[in-house]
Specification:
Belongs to the FtsQ/DivIB family. FtsQ subfamily. This protein is α/β, with parallel strands linked by helices. Helix content is 30%, strand content 25%. It starts with 5 loop residues before the first strand and ends with a strand.
Length: 286
């Protein structure tokens, strides 16, 4: 019997078709699916166009701002400084000398003045330990000066401040009442620190340092204001001073004016040389 197949696309009835071979399967691939094309939202396109002309606009605005700033500052660059204020607790700095340092800068403007050079000129003055220079718009300058605080003499031609820094004022003769310190040039700070330690130890007991010397080999020599000379050696000088003070409090306080020299170089004692010919040794060596 034949098989009639109707073709739905043509509406016609086809002729007889033979049956396909046993086991054969005919597969018709599906037609490719066409995806809808996505279009960029209109607001994103507008954002890109905005960026294209926004940066040139910002550059134009910046240029106009700089141009306006230049024209506003130009008169200040030509306007001389009207006032220079010098501040600080000044006891030794000569104000006339400060005026001489400042005078060449008076014709400068606040914009063109070289603040670093002015500060360097001020620091070159003997008594100036620190200086700051500040612009105050539109035409004022403020200078703040810090003085050296003299604590002791260093040799015959310099003074030491409380940080152990040496400086050389013109008239050092008026500071003869300050303690005299000596030592290698490289040891200024150490000598000052040791002097301060000794003063803190001695003052509660009625002693003061009049002279302190550190010699080349590191040995220390001290003289009190009452004239007592102390030989401290090189090591453990603070402990040796504490030993002297303990013995001084117990045995020597009533006879200090008779003491000429104290030798503290012993490991566990000390020797006292009196102003009289006799010498008394005191220690724990028994």
């Amino acid at each position: 019997m034949g098989l009639m197949i109707r073709d739905p696309r043509s509406g016609r009835t086809g002729g007889r078709r033979s049956a396909p071979a046993r086991g054969a399967v005919r597969v018709t691939p599906p037609a490719p699916r066409s995806w809808p094309r996505l279009s960029m939202p209109s607001w994103q396109g507008a954002g890109q166009r905005l960026q294209q002309w926004l940066w040139p606009l910002l550059l134009v605005i910046l240029g106009m701002g700089l141009y306006e700033l230049y024209h506003r500052l130009q008169p200040l660059a030509q306007h001389p400084i009207s006032t220079i204020n010098v501040e600080g607790d000044l006891q030794y700095i000569d104000r006339d000398s400060v005026q001489q340092i400042i005078a060449p800068y008076m014709d400068e403007s606040l914009v063109t003045i070289d603040l670093e050079q002015l500060r360097a000129d001020l620091l070159g003055m003997p008594w100036v330990a620190g200086a700051t220079v500040t612009r105050i718009w539109p035409d004022r300058l403020v200078i703040n000066l810090d003085e050296h605080l003299p604590i002791a003499r260093w040799g015959d031609s310099a003074l030491l401040n409380n940080a152990g820094r040496a400086f050389s004022p013109e008239r050092i003769d008026r500071f003869q009442g300050l303690p005299l310190l000596n030592g290698p040039e490289r040891a200024k700070r150490r000598v000052m620190q040791t002097y301060q330690q000794f003063n803190r130890l001695l003052r509660p007991y009625g002693h003061e340092v009049a002279r302190l010397e550190m010699r080349d080999r590191g040995s220390w020599f001290l003289t009190t204001r009452s004239g007592i000379e102390m030989l401290l050696g090189r090591d453990d000088v603070v402990e040796k001073m504490q030993r002297f003070l303990a013995i001084d409090k117990l045995m020597l306080a009533d006879r200090r004016e008779l003491i000429a020299r104290v030798d503290l170089r012993y490991s566990n004692g000390m020797a006292v040389a009196w102003r009289e010919p006799a010498t008394v040794e005191m220690g724990s060596n028994e």
